[in-house]
Amino acid sequence: MEKSDSFAILDINIGDKDKKDMSGENDNNTDDHNKKNPSPFTTVIKIQRDRGERDYIGFATLPEQVHRKSVKRGFDFTLMVVGESGLGKSTLINSLFLGDLYRNRKIPDAQDRIEKTTTVEKKTMEIEERGVKLRLTIVDTPGFGDAINCEDSWRVCSAYIDEQFRQYFTDESGLNRRHMQDNRVHCCLYFVPPWAHSLRQVDLEMMRRLHRKVNIVVVIAKADSLTAAEVKRLKTRILSDLEEHQIQVYQFPECDSDEDEEFKQQDRDLKAAAPFAVVASDVVLEVGGKRVRGRQYPWGIVDVENPRHSDFTKLRTMLISTHMQDLKDVTQDVHYENFRAQCISQISQHAMRERGKLKRDSMGNNNEVAFTDTDRLLLQKDEEIRRMQDMLTQMQEKLKASDKKHDSIIDV
């Protein structure tokens, strides 16, 4: 370390050979080894302020710059809720985001539900908390699982997700990408009825169609109708069904080693709680002098935020406080990239078919092969590759011959 009047500079070279030394096993010889064998791979320079006499370079404010820009731009999050009517989807959404998105909702009667088909309803609301703006989009699927024949209930949801991916791909490929709007579905809350002993066939078919397109989070609805033992048994059966049918739901990322113990414990609790057995309520009751969201029963009150009564708090923590950005990252890096690769592959195949069709048409019209400049260039490249392969073959034969000669000399 060399000290100056304003700051201290520490130059550390890190390479493959230095990893063992940096791990702490040879701390006494680290400095000598770095001076004698400087690594050409990575150089880490730490600049420390010397008693505040002068400021350092200033790039340490980059996180603040990113924060200000992100807050000014705002955030987008799209949540899809899937499940049959009567499971409390609307109530859960209102409880999670402290709003009333379904104020003007009309509940269809039994006659309307006989031939009810799955539709898609999208509602958007702006939420601001401590200066941070969130544009929340809720995609509801009324009619799912209500008809007698539910074979095609998954088609509407899958088509909607694909359409949002396709729209984003079109905007991303356009000329003006400054004001792109992200309407891709970042998470799908799939509601399982509490009276089912495991996942039903319609549930398995729906999740099998969607698990490669969106992050699925399984929710056991109306968990207050089950005992603690029944909830535990239902969770075990759901996880077993998912594993048996190879359905990939959202996987929580592993904690970094430098995280504090409190965050690690919270992450372990969230992983152990999945699938989440929730109780939702938009009614505020007074219990013991405190105002809580709960449900009033003849035998008592169920507090939706009490972890002994429901996993509502854990679901809200995972969905909003800890893993919202990770849900968006997985959507971008995994699901959207898979869709984008398929689109590019289809475009390439279509271009090749069109090119072959044009070539056949030109051959039919001229009764002879009409080579373009691109075709000639490809033929030249193929010829060069063949010549290089012949040269490599000859070199390998010479090396083998020299090795045999060397071995015979040694044997003598």
Automatic annotation (TrEMBL):
<dbReference type="Pfam" id="PF00735">
    <property type="entry name" value="Septin"/>
</dbReference>
<dbReference type="GO" id="GO:0051301">
    <property type="term" value="P:cell division"/>
</dbReference>
<keyword id="KW-0963">Cytoplasm</keyword>
<comment type="similarity">
    <text>Belongs to the TRAFAC class TrmE-Era-EngA-EngB-Septin-like GTPase superfamily. Septin GTPase family.</text>
</comment>
<dbReference type="InterPro" id="IPR027417">
    <property type="entry name" value="P-loop_NTPase"/>
</dbReference>
<keyword id="KW-0175">Coiled coil</keyword>
<protein>
    <recommendedName>
        <fullName>Septin</fullName>
    </recommendedName>
</protein>
<feature type="domain" description="Septin-type G">
    <location>
        <begin position="73"/>
        <end position="346"/>
    </location>
</feature>
<dbReference type="InterPro" id="IPR016491">
    <property type="entry name" value="Septin"/>
</dbReference>
<keyword id="KW-0342">GTP-binding</keyword>
<keyword id="KW-0547">Nucleotide-binding</keyword>
<dbReference type="InterPro" id="IPR030379">
    <property type="entry name" value="G_SEPTIN_dom"/>
</dbReference>
<dbReference type="GO" id="GO:0005525">
    <property type="term" value="F:GTP binding"/>
</dbReference>
<dbReference type="GO" id="GO:0005737">
    <property type="term" value="C:cytoplasm"/>
</dbReference>
<feature type="coiled-coil region">
    <location>
        <begin position="378"/>
        <end position="405"/>
    </location>
</feature>
<keyword id="KW-0132">Cell division</keyword>
<keyword id="KW-0131">Cell cycle</keyword>
<feature type="region of interest" description="Disordered">
    <location>
        <begin position="17"/>
        <end position="40"/>
    </location>
</feature>
